[in-house]
Amino acid sequence: MTEIAQRTVETNGYNTHLWDSGDEGRETIILLHGGGPGANAKSNWYDFISELAGEYRVIAPDLVGYGRTDHPEGMPGSLTGWIRMRVEQVLATMDALGIERAHLVGNSMGGSVAMHLVMTAPERFDRISLMGSAGGESHPTPEVIRMVSFYKDPSISALENLTKWFVYDENALGRSIPEIVAERHNEVMRPEVRRSYECFFSSSPTEMKVPQSALRRMPHPFLIVHGREDRFVTPDSSVYLQQHLPNAQLHIFNHCGHWVQVERRRSYAALLLDFLADKY
């Protein structure tokens, strides 16, 4: 079994916590998690890392504002400011680890961060996969409204509903819902996590949208995947991205919600590995 190690690196005056697996001499994949309550690199990616680490070095950081990464004082007052801070964090993490270039995989909010990274430092990234990505043309659904306003009622039952809604079939989670929800609820009730979350979502999630003028200037190969039954970022968002990115392909998984890496883990990993190896 591939070892998955925890480590911290200094990034712009605060410490970033990350998971690191695979041979340092191999090409690197950076996994960027989503932005729901209780999200972090472990909850989004831990089981998926082993699907990739046999062939790549895999890095999965807790994006600033989430998880065990430091929560600095004086956080940005806008969602666009948070995105910029996370872009700078990922670039600083790459510098600290001596990573010149990398592939990117971004889920939901992490997909928007991935595109902003390509916009900011295109020469540092090769191939990009977006999964249920924010940043496209999408209108807030009732599920998203419940997610961004979670702390108006940060109850176990509210978090249990959100957790079920993230997937098409909760049996795909592979663990009991109460166990998963208990872990995530402990995370969301940490005061620093709550402070960051409420600050991040103090402005509209639509600020994560990437302008068409930026998308058409991203010549990198993109693999876009989406669950047909995703109700947090609806599939039309990925259709929009595929239409405006000049070198993008789109795969939609049937009977799948927002967490493709959970519900279609092996199928998505196989698709991703072929894409990264430039087999199509």
Explain how this protein is built:
- The chain has 280 residues and is an alpha/beta fold.
- It has a single domain (4-276), classed as Rossmann fold.
- The protein has eleven helices and eight strands.
- The chain has helices spanning 41-52, 79-97, 109-120, 142-148, 156-165, 177-188, 191-200, 212-215, 236-244, 260-263, 265-276; strands at 4-11, 14-21, 28-32, 57-61, 102-107, 125-131, 222-227, 248-253.
- Strands 1-2-4-3-5-6-7-8 form an eight-stranded mixed β-sheet, sandwiched between helices.
- The radius of gyration is 17 Å and the shape is globular.
- The two termini are 29 Å apart.
- The model has no long low-confidence stretch (mean pLDDT 93).
- This is Alpha/beta hydrolase.
- It comes from Rhodococcus artemisiae.
- Pfam families: Abhydrolase_6.
- One of its GO terms (molecular function) is hydrolase activity.
- Residues 29-270 form the AB hydrolase-1 domain.
Radius of gyration: 17 Å
Shape: globular
Helix content: 25-40%
Low-confidence segments: none
Q: How is the main sheet built?
A: 8 strands, mixed
Distance between the termini: 29 Å
CATH topology: Rossmann fold
User: In the CATH hierarchy, what is the class?
Assistant: Alpha Beta
- Tally of extended strands? 8
Strand and helix order: EEEHEHEHEHHHHHEHEHH
Tally of structural domains: 1
Strand content: 15-25%
Structural class: alpha/beta
Number of helices: 11
Average of the residue pLDDT scores: 93
Reported CATH architecture: 3-Layer(aba) Sandwich
| The CATH fourth-level homologous superfamily | Alpha/Beta hydrolase fold, catalytic domain
